[in-house]
Each structure stands twice: as structure tokens, then as C-alpha cells.
Amino acid sequence: MLNDSNIKKIKRKIIILGEGGVGKTTLLHRYVNKVFVDSTKMTIGTDFFIKKVDITLDNADKYQMTLLLWDFAGQERFRFILNEYIQGAEGIILAFDLSRVATLYRIKNWIGLLKEGGVWGDSKTKFFLLGTKKDLVTEDPSIISSDQIDEFKEKFNADSYFETSSQNGFGVEEFFNYLAKSLI
């Protein structure tokens, strides 16, 4: 941790959304606990993680950011409580499974819910498109084409797009470092 009296301490609320089974909980375990949890139980409603990160910007400003990471269940039966959790979120991660193209297209359903909740289009909230389970597509990278992802990203004005693998850690730190810096 940074040890300086000039460090600005801030908190940011992050919500991760996506269909059940896309790897949201596993991703957060990889990031927060540095472990790959092979079998997680279905999230009931929400789960919650906290991660403190030290950030030094190019201009030498220093921050200690506490990320409040809300893991929202992907199953439709829990969506009625989403509006309670998305209020006040500074960052929303829209996650899909790179090996299951349907999960990319179902992001539209999540965006619809965000619109209903008044969060979509809010300039205070950044949206991050995240492809998970990169390790499952190394043999067949055409499962979801980069054109499909680019089209989706452009259509819905995602602030960024990253690919990760919770299994081997690919891209996880890079994604969350980018997310944290972009929320300062």
C-alpha cells in the first residue's frame, strides 16, 4: 500500500452483470483472492467483494481506491431486485462468455434493465464490455468474431472492451487496473 499523507482515498461502486454461468463470480475470486475457483455455486441475488488498490497517475497523483464489487446473479428470477443495487454505481461491467455467442447478445437484455433503472446513459456511470473465459476459445477464435464485438461495442457505447480468463489469469489485472484508473 502507498504510504503518503497526500494519498486521496476514494470508494467506487462497481456492478458486474451478465447471464448465469458467464464467470462473473469466478472472475471476482481471481481478482480479489488471486485464486481460480473451479466450481462456484450459483449466486443467489448478489454477492459482494472488496478490493483496495493503489493508483499512481502519470501526473504523480496518488489514490487508494476501495472497489466495492457487487456480483449480481445472472438468472432471470433475480432481476426484479436489480434496480436496488445499480443506483449509485460508478462502473458497470457487462460480462459475456466468449465461448457462447448467445451470452453476448443477451447483454441487450441487461442494457434494457439498466435503461429502466435510469442508469444507462448516465454520464456518471462508465460501462465496460468484458469477454470472459478466453482460455476456452484459444483453439477456435471464431466462436465470436471481433466484428461482432466491435459492432456491439459501438452500438451500445461501451467505454472499453477487454477479454479475460479467470482460469489462467489472462487480462484480469489489466482489466481491473484500467477500470480503476478510469473511475478517478
UniProtKB/TrEMBL annotation:
This is Rab family GTPase. The keyword NADP does not apply. InterPro entries: P-loop_NTPase, Small_GTP-bd, Small_GTPase. One of its GO terms (molecular function) is GTP binding. Keywords: GTP-binding, Nucleotide-binding. Belongs to the small GTPase superfamily. Rab family. Gene3D superfamilies: P-loop containing nucleotide triphosphate hydrolases. SMART domains: RAB (SM00175), RAS (SM00173), RHO (SM00174). It comes from Promethearchaeum syntrophicum.
